[in-house]
Amino acid sequence: MTVLVTGGAGYIGSHMVHALVEAGESVVVVDNLSTGFSDFLPRSVPLVIGDAADEDLVEGLLVRHRVESIIHFAGSIVVPDSMRDPLGYYRNNTMTTRSLLNSAVKCGVNRFIFSSTAAVYGNPDQVPVPEHAATRPTSPYGSSKLMTEIMLHDAAEAHGMSYVVLRYFNVAGADPLGRAGLSTVGATHLLKIAVEAATGQRAKIDVFGTDYPTPDGSCIRDFIHVSDLAEAHRAALSYLRQGGGSTTLNCGYGRGYSVLETIEAVRRVSMRKLAVQHAPRRPGDIMAMVADTRRIRATLDWTPRHDDLDTIAAHALAWEEKLLRERGGLARQAKSA
Ligand code: UDP
Fold first, then answer.
1. Atom of ligand 1 nearest to the CA of 191
2. If you measure from the C-alpha of residue 260 to the centroid of ligand 1, how many angstroms do you get, rounded to a whole number?
3. Which end of the chain is more exposed for a tag (fewer CB within 10 A), N or C?
């Protein structure tokens, strides 16, 4: 009995694969390596280079490996890119999942875990945001994920499938053992930018907006360590195997840090001076995004182990330093995550 991980060579997917292997699971990965790296993966895990939307390929895999559950990470995740190329996002996120679900239904795979996002909420009316909050995405990225959630719900109802949708808040950090991390070139994510500055790859950090009605004027985010996020998926898999019903869960820690506090954490752990420049608000930014975590804590057997901003910053920094050290490190990096 095997677990198929799509996008298993990517940032979050590779952490998932390590967690599954450590738990003694049989795993197979499908990844087109558009943004992933095969050397993030343990050597024991079969990597099939191809597209999760390739139904012939996927169906062959599902049968050959006797796949019993699918954890689906493959997709596109850059909000501004989705504004420029909405149809590409609907293809890579919504249509690919439609094909994957079709393969799953045909082959009788009836457990499915899906990577969704807090971006489905858009501008929340209340913070922390509960799962039953209105979904009003403000980008094609968020819409492509919300459409997929709806499709998954309908397909599951019709075909006796059980699923867990995990809505990620701000994923950050890296594998504490240094086996995987965020390797994007031209990243837009705050912690990545801050550790690039701390390692001398950027001259300064722009703080987009210091006039928000928040305690220090900058935006607030709920950062979750990527390893804890992978563990949440593992807990979701156990939940489904024990007969748990389909559900949608926020994935965060339930507390927010401001942009300025986050930069300060990177300064603390790196012990380097960081040039911080106040800049205008970034269009489309949401002022405060923090998960209401009551449902995930009540539903899953999940205890976060890295719920600490300095730990997240330290692991992100260690990974960045490793990327820099590695010979040819820059050549390994992708254009986008
Ligand atoms: N941010 C910033 N400077 C940067 C990158 C991000 O001030 O160079 C802010 C951004 O405006 C937002 C927060 O950091 O308020 C988190 O942004 P990120 O892109 O990491 O994630 P998002 O929450 O937008 O998905």
1. 20
2. 11
3. N
- Predicted confidence (pLDDT) per residue in 4-32, tens digit: 999 999 999 999 999 999 999 999 999 99
User: Minimal CA–CA distance to 96: which of 41, 161, 30?
Assistant: 30
Record: fold of 190-221+254-291+306-326 = UDP-galactose 4-epimerase; domain 1 (3.90.25)
CA of 132 to the centre of ligand 1 (A): 25
Which residues are known catalytic residues? 141
The atom of ligand 1 lying closest to the CA of 208 is 7
Where do the domains of the chain lie? 2-172+223-251, 190-221+254-291+306-326
Mean pLDDT of 309-315: 98
For residues 64-96, one letter each, b for 16 or more C-beta atoms within 10 angstroms of the residue's C-beta and e for the rest, the string is ebebbbbbbbbbbbbbebbeeeeeebbebbbbb
Q: Is the CB of 188 under 6 A from ligand 1?
A: yes
Cα distances (Å, whole numbers) of residue 37 to 9, 52, 158, 182: 5, 16, 36, 11
Q: For the chain, how many helices (H) and strands (E)?
A: 11, 14
| CATH superfamily of domain region 2-172+223-251 | NAD(P)-binding Rossmann-like Domain (3.40.50.720)
pTM (two decimals) = 0.96
Q: Token digits for 76? A: 């596109």
Decide whether any atom of ligand 1 lies within 6 Å of the 219 Cβ.
yes
Nearest one of 220, 227, 331 to 286, comparing CA atoms: 220
| Residue-wise pLDDT tens digits, 98-114 | 999 999 999 999 999 99
Provide the 10 A C-beta neighbour count for residue 183: 25
CB 84 within 8 A of CB 136: no
